[in-house]
Amino acid sequence: MPMISFSPDTGIWLLTTPHTSYALRIDDTGAPCHLAWGPRLTLPEAESLLAPVESAGDSFEGRPAVGEELPVDGGTRFGPPSLQVRHADGSRAFEWEPVGHRVHEPVPGSAELVLEFRDRLYPLRVALHYRVREDTDVIERRTVLRNAGDRRVELLRADSAAWTLPALPDYRLSHATGQWSAESQLCRDALPYGETVLTSRRGITSHHANPWVMLDAGDATEEHGRVWSAALAWSGTWRVTVQRTPDGRAGWTGGAGHEGTTVPLEPGEEHATPVFAGLCTDGGFGAASRAWHAYTLAHVLPRGRETAPVLYNSWEATGFDVDEAGQTALAERAAALGVELYVVDDGWFGSRRSDRSGLGDWTPATDRFPHGLGPLSDAVHGLGMRFGIWVEPEMVNPDSDLYREHPDWVLHIPGRTRSELRNQLVLNFARADVADWAYGWLTRLVGDHDVDFLKWDMNRAFSEAGWPGAGQGGDRLWSAYVTNLYGVLDRLRVDHHGLRIETCSGGGGRVDLGILARTDQAWASDNTDAVDRLAIQHGFGQIYPARTMSAWVTDVPNQLTGRTVPLRFRFHSAMAGLLGIGGDLTRWSEEELAEGAALVAEYKKVRHLVQHGALYRLSEPLGDRPTVVQYVAEDAAELLVLAWQRGPRHGAPRLPVRLPALTPGARYRDTRTGTVHHATVLAEYGLRLDLPRGDWSSTAVHLVRLPGSD
C-alpha cells in the first residue's frame, strides 16, 4: 500500500503508516477538512466515511469548531483559530482557495504531501505539509506561509497544525505540569467542555508545562486502549489549545508563540512553523510512549543509536569553588569509579565566584587555571575519559565585562527596569551579532581545549522581551531567538563532529523535540533526590526516551530535599536513564567507592537495554506497591527490571510482577543468581522481586534468554 494515495473522484487524501491511516479532503468551500485518524483503511474504506454536510440547526452555530485541518479566523468560525492574519489594510480573516498539491520523497522511506492554497482576496499563500514514514506511525505536520504581495502581513497566530479526534463517548486529557525541581508531573483528567490552554510564555519550553498532549476515551490503561497524542518540536514560547465541543467532538491546535505575540511577514517573505507531530496507537499509554521513543531515537536525535557514556559532573561537589588541582583530584576518583565523561560545571571562567558576577566573560579564570583549561583537559583524557564543560551562552551578569561593553545586547525596554533573575539578564539571541558572538567563543573553546561535551544551561525566563531600534523586528524576537539558537547549535556540530551537547535550563526547562534534534541528551531536573526523580522520570518518559534523560547519583542528605536514601537506591534510580554521578567523591568512604564502582560496572552491562530497549512501566511511581520498570531488547533476548520501594506496609503481600514482551516458550537466566525462569511463568504468573527488607529498597534484575529455548 502506498504511503500517500488520492481519490480524484472524492478528493480524499489518504496517508498510511505501518498501523494507522489519516484521511482528509478539501470541501466545497476550498477548506481542508479532517476525515479520519485511526486504524488502517483502504482508500475505498476511507471514501465510505464521507457523510453529507449537515446544515446548522440555528443561526448561532456556524461551521463545526472541530474538524478542519487548520481552522482560520474568518467566515462563520467561532472556535480557536490556528491561523489569524491581519492584512495591510487592517482587515483580518483568511478564505481558502486551493491552487495545487505535490507529493515527494524528502528522504528514502518517507513521503510528503503538500497542499497549497491562497487567500481568495489577498496575496497570502499557505502550504500544509504532511510527512509519513514507513517505520513509524508518527505523522509530521507543519505549515508554511508566504507573503506574495507588496505590503506587510501580520501573523497574529500561525499554528503548525490542528488535530481532530473521532466522536467518542468521553475524552480524557494527559499532559505534564510542574515547576522548577518538580518537572514532568503527569496529569491525567477528564477533558472539560470548552477550551483548555496549555502554554509557556517564558521564552523557553518551561518547567511548568511541556508541549505534548495525549487524549483517550477515558478507558485506556498503560497497556490497553487507543490513544491519540501529539508533540511540538519547538524550544520557545508555545501554545496548545485542546477543545471539547457540546456536539461530542474533541481536537487540539498548537504551535509556536503565545497570545499577544505576532510575526510580521514582509513582501516575499516566508514563515515556516515548527513540526507538530501526531500519533495514534492501540495498546494504551505504554504503546504510545514506546512509539514516541522509537521515533525520537530514529528520526529526531542527531545520533540516536549511540550509547551514552557514564558521566561525572562537579557541581554538587564543588559549587563555584573550581580550580585545576581540585578538578584533577575529582577526575582521578571519577575515573577509578569507571566514569567515561568528566564535566566541569560552573565557576571556571572570568570573575565567577558566585552567581553574581562573571557570566558572559568566557575565558578561563587565570587564578584558578593559570595555564588555561588545556592541562585539565589533557589530564582527563589521560585518565581515559572524555572532557566536558558547563556553559550558559544566552545569559550575562550585569557585573561582567561583556555587559559593561554591550549593555544593549540584553532583552530590555528603554526606560523600564531590567528585571534580574538569579542576578542575570538574557542576551538577545534574536540579534545576529549576539548569536555570532556566542558561536565564535564557543567554537574556539571547544577547539582550543579539546572539549568533547557541552552542558548548555539557561537559567532564567525572558522578561522585558523588547528589541529597541529593531522596529518590526521586535515582534519577531520570540521566534528569531529560537531560530538563531538552533543555528548556533547546528554550526557547532558541523565544526566539531565529535562534540556532544546536553540541553539544560535550570533542569528540565527546555526539553522538547526541537532542541533534541540538535542535542544528545537532556537534564530532566535540578532535583537529584532519587525518590522525587522516580515521579519526574515517569512523566518525562511519557514522550521522551531514556536515551535522552540524564540522571545523577548525588550525596545525602539531598541538597534540595534533605532526604537520605541508600546509595544503591540512588544508583538504581539514576540507572533508569543516562547514569551520571554528581556527589563529592572526596568525601565518599572506601566502602561507598567500592559499591559505586560495582554499580557503575553493573550499569555498563545493561545500559544498551535502558538506552535502546523498549520501556514498559509495570506500576505507578511510589504507590503502596513497588515502582517497577522494564526494558526489553528489540529481539527480546535480554531484559532489565528495575524496582524501588518506599518501605513494606505491614501485612501487605509481596505480589509477583508480570513481565510482558518475552519470547513465548523461552527460558531466561538471571545473570546475578543463575536462576532460570520460564517465559510463560514470568508473563502469566510473574517474577517475585528480591527487594531487601526495610525502607527505600531497590533491585535490578537482568535476564538473558537461553540459546535454543525459543
* Overall morphology: globular
What is the structural class?
Answer: alpha+beta
Number of helices: 13
Largest sheet: 10 strands, antiparallel
Q: What integer is the average pLDDT?
A: 95
Task: Give start-end ranges of low-pLDDT stretches.
Answer: none
The residue fraction in helices comes out at 10-25%
Q: Over the alpha carbons, how many angstroms does the gyration radius reach?
A: 27 Å
The percentage of residues in β strands lies in 25-35%
Q: Quick one: how many beta strands? A: 37
Distance between the termini: 32 Å
How would you describe what is shown here?
It contains 13 helices and 37 strands. It is α+β, with helices and mostly antiparallel strands and 710 residues long. β7 (110-119) and β8 form a beta hairpin. It is globular and about 80 Å long.
Write the layout of secondary structure elements.
Blueprint: E1 4-7, E2 12-16, E3 20-26, E4 32-39, H1 43-47, E5 83-86, E6 96-104, E7 110-119, E8 124-133, E9 136-147, E10 153-158, E11 161-164, E12 172-177, E13 185-190, E14 194-200, E15 212-216, E16 226-232, E17 238-244, E18 250-256, E19 263-265, E20 270-272, E21 276-282, H2 284-299, E22 311-313, H3 315-318, H4 324-337, E23 341-344, H5 374-382, E24 386-391, E25 395-396, H6 401-405, E26 425-426, H7 432-448, E27 453-456, H8 477-495, E28 500-503, H9 513-516, E29 521-523, H10 530-540, E30 549-553, H11 567-574, E31 578-581, H12 590-612, E32 614-617, E33 627-632, E34 638-645, E35 667-670, E36 676-678, H13 679-684, E37 697-705
Helix pairs in contact: 4-5, 7-8, 10-11, 11-12
